[in-house]
Write a structure and sequence with these properties.
The protein is of the alpha+beta class. It has a single domain (7-200), classed as Aminopeptidase (3-Layer(aba) Sandwich), CATH 3.40.630.30. 41% of the residues lie in helices and 25% in strands. The chain has helices spanning 14-24, 29-32, 35-47, 72-77, 83-92, 97-107, 131-145, 161-170, 197-200, and strands at 7-8, 51-58, 61-69, 114-122, 150-156, 173-180, 184-192. A seven-stranded mixed beta sheet has the order 1-2-3-4-5-7-6, sandwiched between helices. Strand 6 and strand 7 (184-192) form a beta hairpin. Helix 1 (14-24) packs across helix 3 (35-47). The protein is globular and about 35 Å long. The chain starts with 6 loop residues before the first strand and ends in a 7-residue tail after the last helix. The relative contact order is 0.16.
C-alpha cells in the first residue's frame, strides 16, 4: 500500500468519507442515523473554520480519515444546521432519541483550550498499515497549529480493548470513564500538547 501523508479533505471526498465511516462503524450511533446525516455532519466539519478533517489515501483511493475541531463548543452550537438530517434519522430510528440527548449533553462538557478528535476511521480492508496512527499524529499537529493546548477523545470502555490499547500505545492518557444514557460507559482520553510538542508535530474508533 502507498505510504502517503494525510492531507486536508476536500468536498469531493465526502462521499468516500461517509462510506469509510459506515464500513468502520457498523451499528454505531452516527452510522445508524444514515448516510444523509453523515454527509451533512462531515460537510459541517469541513466548513467549520476551526474544523479539522484529514484523509489518508492508498492505492485504491481514500482509505481513512480523522475529524475533529479545535473549538468544539462553537461546532456544537452550529449543529442546529443539521436538524433536518438528524430528525430524519431519528424518525426512522426513534430508539436513538435517548442516546442523542445524552451525547449532546456530554459533548458540551468541553475542556477549555482542548481540541476534540471526534472520529477516526480506516477502511477495514486497509487495516494493519499504520494509517490510523498517521492520521492521529497529523490531527495532533493540526490541533497544535490551531492553538489548542490539548486534544480529547472518547471511545467505548467495554468490549473495545483494541481501540483503547491503540490510543494508550500512542501516548494518550485515560482521564476518566463516564456513563451516558443507556448505561454506555465511555473512556475519555487526553493528550497534553504543551508537554509533548515534538510528538504532536511528528507528522480505533472514537465515534
Amino acid at each position: 500500500m502507498t505510504d502517503s501523508s494525510p492531507r486536508p479533505a476536500r468536498p469531493a471526498d465526502l462521499t468516500r468519507i461517509v462510506a469509510v465511516h459506515q464500513a468502520a462503524f457498523p451499528g454505531f450511533f452516527l452510522t445508524a442515523l444514515g448516510p444523509r446525516f453523515l454527509h451533512a455532519y462531515y460537510r459541517q466539519v469541513l466548513a467549520y473554520p476551526a474544523g479539522v478533517l484529514l484523509v489518508a489515501e492508498g492505492d485504491a483511493g481514500l482509505v481513512g480519515f480523522v475529524a475533529g475541531f479545535t473549538q468544539p463548543t462553537g461546532f456544537y452550537r452550529a449543529l442546529p444546521r443539521l436538524i433536518g438530517p438528524l430528525l430524519l434519522g431519528l424518525l426512522r430510528r426513534p430508539w436513538l432519541v435517548g442516546h442523542a440527548v445524552g451525547r449532546a449533553v456530554r459533548r458540551h462538557e468541553s475542556t477549555p483550550g482542548a481540541a476534540e478528535l471526534s472520529s477516526l476511521a480506516v477502511d477495514p480492508a486497509a487495516g494493519g498499515h499504520g494509517i490510523g496512527s498517521r492520521l492521529v499524529r497529523a490531527f495532533l499537529a493540526a490541533a497544535a497549529r490551531g492553538g489548542a493546548t490539548a486534544v480529547t477523545l472518547t471511545t467505548d470502555a467495554r468490549a473495545n480493548d483494541g481501540v483503547n490499547a491503540f490510543y494508550t500505545k500512542l501516548g494518550f492518557r485515560l482521564a476518566r470513564t463516564v456513563t451516558s444514557t443507556g448505561a454506555r460507559a465511555m473512556n475519555e482520553y487526553t493528550w497534553d500538547l504543551r508537554s509533548a510538542p515534538s510528538r504532536a508535530g511528528g507528522g480505533k474508533r472514537s465515534t
